Every structure is written in structure tokens, then in C-alpha cells.
Amino acid sequence: MGSSNKKKKEKKKDFQKAKLKVGKAKPKAANFTDTSFKSKSIVVNQQTLVTDDSDPAEQFKQNLSLAINAKSDNHRRDALAYITNQLSGTPPNNPVGTSAVLTKLLPLLSDGSASVRTQLLKVLRALPPAEVGPHVEKVLMYIRGGMTHLSNDIRSDTLNILEWLLEVAGDETVSCPGGWMKTLNSFSSMLGWNPNVGSALNSKGWTSSSRATLGTKRGPEAQARQIHVLAKFLQAGFKPEAPTPYNPMAYWGNIYRLPGTPSPFAYLNLFGTPRDEDNEMYPDRISRQRIFDAKWRVAITRGMESAKKEGGTVGRAAATLDKALAAGLG
Amino acid sequence: MVKRKVAALEKVEADLVNLQYKIRRDPRSYAQEFHDQWLAYDAQRQIFISSPTTASSEDVKKFHDLVDLVAHVADLYPEITTPFPDQLKELLNQHHATLDKELREKVVGSLVLLRRKDVIDSTSLLTTLFPILISTPSKTLRSLLYTKIISDLRESNSKTTNHKLNRTIQTVLHNLVTSDRTSTKGMWATRITRELWRRQIWTDARPCDVMKEACLSDNEKVVIGGVRFFLGGDKEREELEDESSDEDVDIKKVKHQGVINKKTKKRQKAYEKALEKIKKHERKKHAPHPLNFSALHLIHDPQGFAEQLFQKHLQNTKNKFSLESKLLILQLVTRLVGLHKLTIISLYSWFVRYLTPKQLNVTSFLASLAQATHNLVPPDVIEPLVVKIANEFVSEASASEVAAAGINAIREVALRQPLCMTETLLQDLVMYQKSKDKGVVMAAKGLQSLYREVYPELLQKKYRGKQATMGLRAGEIRQRQFGEEEEGGIEGIELLERYKEEQKRKKQEERALNSGDTDKKEDNDDSDDDGFNSDEWEVASTDSESSGGWIDVSSESEDDEPAKKKRRKGDEEEEEEDAEDTPALVDTSTEAGAAAAAQAEINRISKLATTTILTPTDLAKLEELRREAKLDKALGRSSKRKKELIDKHIEDGLTADDIELPALLGKKTTKEERVALAREGKPARDEHKSTQAIRHAKKDAEGKSTTNREKARKKNFLMTIGKARAKNKRSLVETSKTMRAHIARSKSGGRRRNGG
Fold first, then answer.
1. Alpha helices in A148-249 (DSSP H)
2. Where is the SDA1 N-terminal domain (chain B) (predicted)?
């Protein structure tokens, strides 16, 4: 009985008319749907695919941001290729300036994709060498980060970039704050020639292979290349300075003229944090030689000797290094 | 094209997590790798520091990962990572406002991790985090830092109390509160102190001092934080303690699960854990209760504190605090006054302004006034207030709730200082028990019964009642003068003394039986008793035989002689005698002889209490005896209830609810109130209906049908009646056949042949 009564009532309910009341809002219909909504932000699902070809500056900027932010490797590489084209054209088109390009693109140095990294090198090579000089310190930071990266591919690609840097701004590279000692530090760590770390392990080991490595095999080619770049770096550091021709006005120029180089008093370190031995600037050949003598000579010589004994490509690279050392310190 | 197979090692190459795992397993072999990553971290840090605000998200991510790696293995390479903690601290100190959120969290987390690995100590961690906590504008960072600080303090106090660290932090908090009294930064001091007090990590006077300073701050929020601590901090602490003891493990259940489930290492571990927990629980149960003083008792110089609070926040007319805040402060001041019996005369005249029925929250004011009254407040200070309450609240014209609240407030005041009342006023108020409203009647009756106990002369003769009249006539009820204190005494000490004597006598008799030479033994016994008995100081030894010592036998009075003779009748009679004796001693009757006996008893008591030192055994026994004799009942007619009341209020304070209580009497509650009352403390549900209905609704919503049983229950009666009738008409053979069939069917798995 209960259920049938209930059903009757339910059936009745469908045909009952809603009573209107004075002063009350009209009752909502049964099929009423609330279409109002709240949202903190508007999400656009699709981006416009139309590119504005008219303005090359805009396009350059768009590609620059694509090179960093694009998810796909190919997109990044293509964007970099576009930038390379623009930079190497005649006349070069660079609406944002070398500094901005460098700051934006340097994080790509440790990008996961090899093609992006090689393309990055091309971009860098396309940059005007004279404008790279002031940013050497920053580039070196990324290079040091890349040199000690976990992945071997990134390490070796970073060495390419270091080579490029030595080519375009060798002097600045070795004389900027931290450029000499810290880079050497990274090199020794890379080669396993660090005197502080793992030396006990090396002396005990029965194999001449310099270090235990994580994962992949490290062929002699990689090591040879590292030694080779190290030799280049040392050469740059120990390059005899060309004597500046006598200029009778130099004294007065120093006193009264505005300095021609950016941050001419950087060696005073007036505004930065106090530097330790590693972070210090070593602006001239003598000071570089002195600190190298005190800190690295023994370790690198020892590493070099053992590398020479290995022979082959590594031995040959070590011989180059030996030559560079002899020339620099002798 | 076939996907190139990637060698496992090659794939994980750039994986810092994997490297971390390997380093942990074999730190010596991976020193070189770690050094590489350390250099990478250093380079990344420099990149980051050179432009912290514009660092690209990729750089931040990389830096984040490297910080994570280094922090996790820093304890394995202490030489290399020496500068690491300082670098993190510097980073956090200088860039906490601009750092990326995740990186910031990682840095804080890494610092805490380093603390856990004992690379840095708690003090340096807390002194780094604390300044950031009070200065950062980011809410998430604040909450993170707060939890980290609390957890670190808990951790470092978990095994033993780390006094040095606590003192350092308390000093920091104290300085924070006192250095800038107008800023809201003191809030953090109050929050941290309160939390640690709640968890019983800080239980001494120093946190109270911090809170005291917070109360005297100029910032309203800080003041209220401090005041709330004193008013509710101890209760919170107790509640937490109760809660923590609630969580229980059902060891039987765990054991049973071990039997029926597959035996795995995990289950074994769970079982051991449960066992450990139970053991811990047991240990905690049997451990002596930690003696924790309430914060109100630990305040140094309560008089000065209460005066300062009152003058600064209440009396000062320039103060712009909200009424709620002022009420809270008033509550604290009056609580202190009542608890410590302080004298702040200007407080009472300050009250006058607020004692009108139109005043917002007037019942809170009334409660505070009652709280502030104690027996050392001059009656002539309170009398005008009582008169004012009577005039403003209690009249035929005023609403019944108002009148009830007024009379009740007067009662609460009079309970603490009975001398504040004049005869005419009291008689007038007592007459309100003829009122029509139940609340007013109850309040008036309460006032009357109070005065029957404390000062019956003020009442008219017909309202005094039997007990009070008798007491007055006997001269037993005597009005105490202002400032007169009750004589101190130990409840039930005479019982203890008698018990001791009995024990001694028993012993003596035993010895006499053994040796047959009583007199000699008695002498020996006396000399023995003077020796020090070290057993007495152990409560656990319930050996009642040993409680013979420490009594000077020469102080025995002659009253005990008859008891000695009765002793031979046997133990049962003896006990009865005791029970009869006890009330007689206490309930002083009009007989002169009994009064004299009582006097003698009093003399003797004072002697026992003053000539001997009561050992813990004695005290335990005393407690037991008191319970046995139901002393409270016998004693309690007059002063017990009053004492209980006052005790209760000293512990909990008086609230507005207490004042409003009689007005609620005789009021019918509405349905909403009843529903709200029923719903209280139960999990939230949208509608108030039966559980059955809720279950139905749930099934309906899930699209499920009813059970067969429910269907059968709902089936139309007329449809079932035919079958029922047919069943009744079956023959015996038919019935047995169906039954057999039923058994056979159930054996083969029912109609559906389940499992058949």
C-alpha cells in the first residue's frame, strides 16, 4: 500500500501548479539550468597560428622566446636556426642586442637535446666577437655548470663552447673574476686530476684509468679532447702580453679621460661580495702563473704524466698540454 | 623503425636522484662525482645570485635539484660542503622575498634536513628562520617556517629538555615582544609560545614572562594573544593530553589479523609497532603525573602585572581597543585578582559605569566583578556595586532574565565576600522568591540558601531554616569578621591518629600473645618507635603494619581507655564503633559533654600535626580513611558546598554563562535549539533525519534498489495473504516434505546452486 500511495503522490506532483506568492521570487522551472559562472582567469585553448611577417623585430623576439620555452626539441632547434640566420645575414639583424640574446640563450647550454646544443654553438659563433667580451663572466658560469654536468654529451658540447669563448675573448676569459681558478677547478674535476678529491682512490687503484665514472664508458677520445681544450685554456692564460706601445698621453688619459672599457675598476671589487681565492681576478700573466704554480702545477703535472703513459690519442693530447705548460711557465 | 634500446646505465645518467642513491650507498667511490656536482651547484648558485630576480625558470629548476642533492648527502662530505649551510642561509636571508616559491621551500627544507643530519645545530637554524618568519610578507612561507620552527623545537626537546636552546629562543621571543611594542610581530612570539606550552615542551615561568610582556604590548592583536593564553592555555594543554591518551591500538585485533592473514614482514612490523605503542602507553600510564603549574600561577609579581594591565588597557580612556578585547583583558585582570587575592581598589569603582542592563555583554561584566571579589576586598568598596546591581537589574518592572541575572550576580559576589550585604537589601532580594518567573525564584532561593550558611543573622527569622536557626542558638555559626581567616587543619587527621593507635595496640597484643609478657614489651615498643623508619617514605608499600612509628605515646589521652577494652570483642564490632564515632565527633550536637570532647579532640589534632612529620604512607592512609569514613558527608553540610563552589571558580574562572544560567530555568527550548543540541559533536549532515532515511537516500542516489527483505516487508498484504493461508492448510506430510526439500536445497547451495 505504501508504495502505491507514494507513486500516486509522485505522479500527482508532476501536474501540480506552483503557487505564486506575493513578495517572493518566481520559482525556478524544473528544467532551469544555472549558466552563470565565476573564473579567476580566462584560459585560451588555442593560440593564433597567424604569424606577423611584417615586423622582423617581433619575429626575432618570438623566435627567441620559442627557443627557450618551446616544449619540442625541433621547435627549439628551428627557432635557434632562425636566430642564426638573422644574426649572420648582411647586415645582421639583432633588434634585442647581444647581451639579451646571451642571457636568454645561455641556459640552453645544458639542454637535453644534442641538436639544440650544436645549433646553440652556431648562434654563438654568429654573434659579433667584440660584443661578447663584457659578458664573459656570465658565459663562464654556465660553461662551468655544463662542464660538471652529469651527462657526458653536455660536457663535451660545453667544451666546444669554451673553445669558442677562448677564440673570441681569450683574455677576458682568463682574467675575469673566477675565470682562472674556478675554470681550472672544473677542468681538474672533469679529468679526475683533482688533488683534493679522490686522490686516495687514484693512488690505490691498479688501473691507470683515471677515475671511476658514473654510468657510461668514457672513451679516450673524450679525455683527449678535454686535455686538448685544457691546453688551449692554459695557452690563453699564459700568453705573453704584447707590450703596449708607448703613448705619451696615456698618463693624462688615465687621469682625465673617461675609461674606454666597461667596468674598468672591477678589480677593486667595490660593490660585490668579498672574493675568496677562487673567485679572485687574475688580470695579468704573472699572477696567473703564480697561483697556478702554487695550486695546480703538481696535480696537473701528475695527471699529465699518467696520461702520457697511456699513449694513443690521450698521450698525444697530453704532449700538447706539456708543450703549452712548458711554454707558459718556462 | 625499431626503437633503439637504451642501456639502463646510459638512461639514468643525468639523473640526480639516482646519483644521490649511489652516493649514499658508497660515498667513497662517488666522491669524484659528488665533487663535480658540487662545482655544478656552485656555478649554478653564482648564476642565480648574479640576477636572482630574472633567473630563468630552467636555471631555477636546475639549482633546485642541485641544492636538493647536496643537502641530502652533505653529511657524507663534510669538508667539501662546509660553506653549504652558510650559503643557504645567506640566500634565504637576502632573497627570501624574491625567490621562486618552490626553490624557497627547498632551501628551507634543506636547512631543516641539515639540522636533522646534525650538520648545523638548532640554534643556528632557528635564528635563521625566525627573523624571516616575522619579516616575510608571504603567507605560505610564514606557515612553512612556523611549522618547521615548532617541529624543530619539539624534536630537540624530545629526549631531554634542551634548556640552552629553550632559553635562547625564549630570550629571542621576549626581545621580540618588548623591542617594539606597537608592531604586530609579537603575534609570532605569542603563537609559538602558546603552541609549545600546549605541547608541554615549555612549562616553566619564562614563557609566561614572554606572554606577560605580550599582554602589556600596545598592539591589540598581540595583547589578545597573550590574554587568551592565560585564560585558556592550560585548558588547551589538558585537552591535548587527553586526546593523545585517547588514541588506542586494539592489540587483540592486530594479533588476530596476524593469525588469519598471510604472514609478511610488513605485517610482522606492524604488529611489533602496535606492541611497542601499547607498552609505551602503559609506561606513560604508570609514570608519575608531571607536575605542571598553570600559567596563572607562574606569573612573577601578579599584583604589579594586574595593576599595569588594568591601568594600561582598561582605565586609560584613550585606549581604543574593541569591547571584546577589553572584556577579555578584564577577565584576565579579575581572574588574577581573585586567584592571587590582589588588591586593586580602583578596579571596583571602574565597574560602576558598566553595571546597567543596557550595557553590551553586561553578564560578562557581572561575572568579572564576581571573579574580582575575594574575602580580602573591603566590604564598603563592594557594597555600592551590589546596591547598584540591585537597583538597576532587580525590580518588578525589569524583565525576568535581567532580574535573575542580577540576583545571581549578587549571589556570586556575596559567595566570595558575604559582608558586602546589608540587612534590608538582602531581605528585599530574598522576597523575590515569591516571583512568578522560575529563573528569578531560583536565583533568589540560591541567595537565601547561601546566606543561611554564611550569615544567617541577616535573614529574617522565617527564612533562616532549621539548621541555621539551630546553629545560631548553639553559637556554632559565628559570623567571621573582615580579614579573618579560617583556621587551618588537616581533614580527618583524628581518624589517622586513632588508626595508628589501634595498629600499635594490635601489635602489642600480638607480642603479648607471643611472649605472654605484655608490660615488658610495651616498654620495648616505645623505645623502638622513636627510631627512623625509612619504609614510611615509600607510598607503594601498602603494608599497614609498618605505620606504627613516629608517635609520641605519652600524648595519648585517657579517652582511649574504653576503646582498649572494646578491642577484645573482635574486629567487626570495632569497625562499627568507628563509624559511629566519626560523625559524633564532627556533627557537634548541643550536648555540652560532646562539645568538651570535641575540644579535647581539637587539641590533640593540633598536637599530632605539629609534633610529627606525616610520611607519604601516612598521607595515603589518611586519604583512605577519609574515604571510608565518608567524612565529607558528615562534615559537609555547611562549608563543603561553598568550598566546592569557590574551588571550581578558582580553577575555571566565572563566565557570563554562569550568570545567565538561572534565567534559562523553566524556559522551553525551541525545536531548532533541540536539533542543534542533538547535532552537537556529531559529524555534519545536511538534514536532520533518521539513519534509515539517510541510508535509503544514499542507495537511491547510487541508483541501487532495495534488498529482498525490504521488498518483502513492503509487499501488499493482500498479495501475501493467499500464500499464508495455503501454508496453514498443508498436511503434515506436505510440511515435512517442504522442510526436507529446504534442507537439501540449502546443503546444495540454495536455489541458485551456489558452490554446488
1. 152-175, 181-191, 199-204, 220-237
2. 70-436
Q: State how far the alpha carbon of A24 is from the alpha carbons of A16, A19, A21, B144, B389, in Å.
A: 19, 11, 6, 49, 47
User: What is the residue-wise DSSP string for A31-70?
Assistant: T--------SSPPPSS-------S-HHHHHHHHHHHHHH-
Q: Is residue A23 part of a domain?
A: no
Is residue A10 domain-resident?
no
List the one residue out of B157, B88, B170 whose CA is nearest residue B128.
B88
Let me know: does B467 contact B452? Beta carbons within 8 Å.
yes
User: Does residue A230 share a domain with residue A299?
Assistant: yes
Angle between helices B139-156 and B186-198 (to 10 degrees): 40
| Alpha carbons B135 and B725: distance in angstroms, whole number | 86
Same domain? A154 vs A302: yes
Contact predicate A139/A102, CB 8 Å: yes
Residue located via cell numbers 672591477: A266
Return the C-alpha cell found at A161: 663552447
Q: How far apart are CA A196 and CA B81, in angstroms?
A: 13
The whole-number pLDDT of residue B607 equals 64
What value, to the nearest 5°, has the Cα angle with vertex B137 and ends B135 and B141? 90
The answer to whether residues A186 and A317 belong to one domain is: yes
pLDDT at B332: 94
Is the same domain home to A291 and A329?
yes
For A213, name the nearest residue in chain B, comparing CA atoms only.
B33
Check B13 against A150: CB less than 8 A apart: yes
Residue written as grid cell 654563438: A124
- Contact assignment for A152 to B13 by CB distance below 8 Å: yes
d(CA B124, CA B85): 10
Least confident segment among A173-182, B405-414, B530-539, B669-678: B530-539
Are A59 and A109 in the same domain? yes
Q: Is residue A117 located within the same domain as residue A146? A: no
Structural domain boundaries enclosing A77: 54-127
Helix/strand number for chain A, H first, E second: 15, 0
Domain boundary, last residue among A127, A149, A165? A127
DSSP conformational letter for B682: S
Mutation target for B interface from A5, A150, A276: give the one with most B CBs within 10 A.
Answer: A150
pLDDT of residue B701: 86
Alpha helices in B216-250 (DSSP H): 220-246
C-alpha span between B485 and B631 (Å, rounded):
23
Answer whether residue A18 is part of any domain.
no
User: Is A141 within 8 Å of B28 when comparing Cβ atoms?
Assistant: no
Q: Report yes or no on A105 lying in a domain.
A: yes
HSE at residue B153, side-chain half, CA atoms within 13 A, is 26
Kindly provide the ipTM of the predicted complex, given to two decimals: 0.75
CA–CA min distance B66, chain A (Å): 11
Cβ–Cβ gap B50/A138 under 8 Å: yes
Among A81, A102, A127, give the residue marking a domain's end.
A127
Instruction: Report angle CA A135, A116, A65 to the nearest 5 degrees.
Output: 65
Q: Cβ of B13 and A110 within 8 Å?
A: no
Which amino acid makes up residue A147? M
Give B303-313 pLDDT, tens digit per residue. 999 999 999 99
Interface-testing mutation among B23, B28, B36, B68, with chain A (most A C-beta atoms within 10 A): B36
| A174 and A74 together in one domain | no
Question: How much is the CA Rg of chain A, to the nearest whole Å?
Answer: 32
pLDDT at A115 over 70: yes
- DSSP H helical segments within B81-200, as ranges? 84-95, 101-116, 122-135, 139-156, 163-179, 186-198
Task: Please give the tally of structural domains in chain A.
Answer: 2
- Spatial distance between the Cα atoms of B223 and B123, rounded to a whole number of angstroms: 27
A53 to chain B, closest Cα gap in Å: 28
